[in-house]
Design a protein that fits this description.
single chain, alpha+beta, lipopolysaccharide transport protein A fold, 8-stranded antiparallel sheet, globular
């Protein structure tokens, strides 16, 4: 019994040490993709990137982010697409942000800018630098 116990203890120690080391030095993912769903199991958001790294703190650093936000209901309609060359995603907080340029695409508008934040829970985008917005909707009675 003692002969079996020593290797099991050694294996358990190595597993715990490896998990602790692996949490901070996780290899980056190439062609990364993750999907998020609502409590009702409807598609909420898909995140894609050519490379994703996972530093400590539950954040994900993504190169060439393609964030697609869906309606979150049975229609499964695409509401918003956000493209950015570099971004940080905080999945536990439903946030994405970046200092690099981003492009937001919707049916009714397109926007570009830098220093941006996307709050998925409130479906809100904030742009703080070099902002350009093009409305694709009719603006009635704008000038009288």
């Amino acid at each position: 019994m003692k002969r079996l116990l020593r290797p099991l203890c050694l294996l358990a120690y190595c597993s715990l040490a490896g998990a602790a080391i692996g949490a901070t030095t996780m290899a980056p993912a190439i062609n990364w993709m993750s999907s998020l769903f609502t409590k009702e199991n409807f598609h909420s958001m898909t995140l894609r990137g050519s490379r994703a790294s996972f530093p400590a703190g539950g954040e994900i650093n993504v190169v060439n982010l393609n964030l697609t936000a869906f309606s979150g209901d049975a229609t499964n309609r695409v509401e918003t697409v956000i493209l950015s060359t570099a971004a940080t995603v905080l999945p536990n907080q439903n946030l994405a942000h970046g200092d690099q340029g981003m492009r937001l695409i919707r049916d009714d508008l397109e926007a570009t800018g830098t220093q941006w934040t996307y709050d998925h829970a409130h479906k809100k985008v904030s742009l703080h630098g070099r902002v350009r917005i093009v409305f694709n909707a009719e603006l009635r009675n704008l000038i009288k």
